[in-house]
Amino acid sequence: MGTTQLESVPEPKYWHLKTVLTEALDSEFSVGEILPNERDLAARFGVARATLRQALEQLELEGRLQRRRGVGTTVAPPRVGVAVGTEQHAWPGAASDAWQPVDCEQAAPPASVAAALETGADEPVHTVRRSRMSHGQPVATELLYVPAASVPDLTAIDTPSGAARARAVLRELQHLSLESQDRAVELGSARADDAKELDRLPGSPVLVVTTRFFAAGRTAALSVATYRADTCRLTFGDSPDVEIHHDPERRAS
Amino acid sequence: MGTTQLESVPEPKYWHLKTVLTEALDSEFSVGEILPNERDLAARFGVARATLRQALEQLELEGRLQRRRGVGTTVAPPRVGVAVGTEQHAWPGAASDAWQPVDCEQAAPPASVAAALETGADEPVHTVRRSRMSHGQPVATELLYVPAASVPDLTAIDTPSGAARARAVLRELQHLSLESQDRAVELGSARADDAKELDRLPGSPVLVVTTRFFAAGRTAALSVATYRADTCRLTFGDSPDVEIHHDPERRAS
DNA sequence: GAGTGGTCTAGACCACCGC
DNA sequence: CGGTGGTCTAGACCACTCT
């Protein structure tokens, strides 16, 4: 008797808040517009600031909002499509692949990288840093690991430093014939240095694209690219210029 | 004078906590082991429970931990590689593509889907639900939108319902010749129904893979697949069986 | 300096699981 | 039922940006 519990599954406040805010964003706000600050918003919805923030966090994760400390919260533009699968059967650095060489150092790679390269822990590896821009904003950073054995003609003498050295490594790489490659995408959180370069806070969600390049029966290079998950949609198709804008958090059909 | 601020950039507590916990996971714990509960852990580290949870949340996002309400926190196994790019030039449903038909209904799709299908809002669309398992665990759910025009021989009469109807739609799809396809990956948060099927809470981070199938100069089908971001690594390469286990949050080199 | 988002606290209660 | 993680509160202070 009595307890006709139609409210048996009360959805969390932050979830409901997110729904309300999503609808407001769709109907009442335009891209770039700044929202009221968190204290005001929380008061307006009658919740604690922490609860409001939980909703904002998810909306930022979904690419709907952009928050910047000291500035405010703004409505984010639709995610940019970033082509990741077009350079099939081409070495990194070939014919302008949207990446910009930044730096290069020869050092022992992390253990996980050494394992993937199937190389000894003592074998020297060139570590090339590159970055990628889109619409004037940095969208990705990359660490490209190239075993010294893959670029035998490159001596320590004739490689100056910094970007020039990075370009030299990439140039040497073109001499090998690429047999195949291998890609994987997973979710990660930004390291401190990547976060700085991507203009985000450490720990921000990122899409990590790991690519292995095979040549001469070996893993000739390994690329670990870190894309901003909030602003990027990685495209793999034959026509990378399309814009779908599918809502990652869509309402029930 | 005095203030020789070598501590000028104090890293947040939760960040430091995460580092400590990561190292502990690497050295002192094995897969499947259960951690102390959050209240004990927080007390042990001398922080508030909310602060500890912030660290745990990131570790779960990175696939290092698995938390389940009412049960506890356990050390997660390495992410499973899930092949996403092998069915090149093949229709969904062809020759066992790891997906299992669940359901099918004929309804008006969300606006964003209708736009991607370049179909009128009034044109009927078959919506096939499928799910994907790996290692006995559900890893993905999919909504496959097939405009009625793509499967003209399928009448409402001879399609029973549920999984059988889903299979019928997939079977009819094979009659078209697939011209090309298009893929995109982005971060999203799980809808309530997807979350339930993936054994996660609503809002959990997911990788949304949107695939468009082209035939006869049209978009003949649209697939929106939702993968658990904490447990999955999407693989696109020619050899999907490899295991890299690259640490998404790796320490400085 | 004023205003923003980011971090942190010490509590409370709830929803869920397994015994 | 007891124990777990999930939600929520009402504060406080900090780091940052802009003016």
UniProtKB/TrEMBL annotation, chains A, B:
A molecular-function term among this protein's GO annotations:
DNA binding
Q: Recite the UniProt keywords alphabetically.
A: DNA-binding, Transcription, Transcription regulation
Using the record's annotation, list all stretches that form the HTH gntR-type domain.
11-78
What domain of life is recorded for the organism? Bacteria
Any single GO BP term: negative regulation of DNA-templated transcription
- UniProt xrefs under Gene3D superfamilies: Chorismate lyase-like (3.40.1410.10), Winged helix-like DNA-binding domain superfamily/Winged helix DNA-binding domain (1.10.10.10)
Statement: the UniProt record of this protein carries the keyword Transcription: yes
Short name of any one Pfam family annotated for the protein: GntR
Question: What protein is this chain from?
Answer: GntR family transcriptional regulator
What species was this sequence derived from? Streptomyces yokosukanensis
